[in-house]
Amino acid sequence: MAEGAALRAVRDCLAAFPREARELGLVESVPYLDRPPSPLEFYREWVSPNKPCIIQNAIGHWPALKKWTLTYLREVVGSKVVSVAVTPNGYADAVFQDRFVMPEERRMPFMDFLDIVEKKVTSPNVFYVQKQCSNLTEEFPELVCDVQPDIPWMSEALGKKPDAVNFWLGESAAVTSLHKDHYENLYCVISGEKHFLLHPPSDRPFIPYELYQPATYRVSEGGSFEIVDEKTVDKVPWIPLDPLNPNLEQYPGYAQAKPLQCTVKAGEMLYLPSLWFHHVQQSHGCIAVNYWYDMEYDLKYSYYQLLDCLTNAVKVL
């Protein structure tokens, strides 16, 4: 009886936590700033309370905003061989057929990739430059001078430089499944639009996680994709739910979550705080650069870990 009462108390606490978090100051929509903030202002108003915002007039001086047409990228990067994520369905790093499936990482000339984006060449598959290991500096150093190696006011606010600066370019069919990162993320759109669906960390009790066998898309001799298990790798915790079309019969708790949605347009920057869940879509040929700053593993991180552990414990019981 005592155990049952304790379990009900934990469940009630988990159900109430997201509502109380919103009442205590979490945003109901993603606000806009009309200028880049000072380092102190940004840390005090956004990083410390873990709130997202869209910042305008922060990257208007970047040459990339005027220069980065597909024609320019073709001329500057040309035939250089780069890493491209290729999938049959547009979902890389996502749950499919009860596996956590990673994309085929195809090495191909950049101009061949651009031919696909510009539809000069047709393919049944979906292509996306999205390698997240500071690929801007590692694979596209020719383009670094058109942006910035870091965001100075962010670097000062956090007292560190970014761990990675990533370059993103792909087809509209390329979708990023719902997940979270342990980074303070500044996401800058150069051309096109990015569409974000966001959940605060306090929505964790309503967001399902399962453990999945990791696997990778591989192209068979016949040219079709097959899914190959990565048998020497531990199972991966991932979110099976599609927030655009959630299966509420299977995951009824998600009905209590309240996602935020926003569109980041060319010339705008999204501050995506650490541990926020995000699902991302894009316009065709959208170009973006993002800066990943390692988060502080402070009290916010401890609170999230506690919430995660309680959520998992209730599920087991």
Q: Would you write up a description of this structure?
A:
This protein has helices spanning 2-23, 39-47, 64-67, 70-77, 110-117, 135-139, 152-158, 299-316; strands at residues 32-33, 53-55, 81-87, 91-92, 94-96, 99-102, 104-109, 126-129, 164-170, 175-179, 183-191, 193-199, 210-219, 225-229, 236-238, 260-265, 269-272, 277-282, 287-294. The model has no long low-confidence stretch (mean pLDDT 92). With 317 residues, it is α+β, with helices and mostly antiparallel strands. The strands form 3 sheets. It has a 9-stranded mixed beta sheet with strand order 1-2-17-11-19-9-8-3-7. Strands 4-10-18-12-16 form a 5-stranded mixed beta sheet, with no helix packed on it. Strands 5, 6, 13, 14 and 15 form a 5-stranded mixed beta sheet that branches. α2 packs across α7. Its EC number is 1.14.11.63. It is an enzyme of class 1 (oxidoreductase).
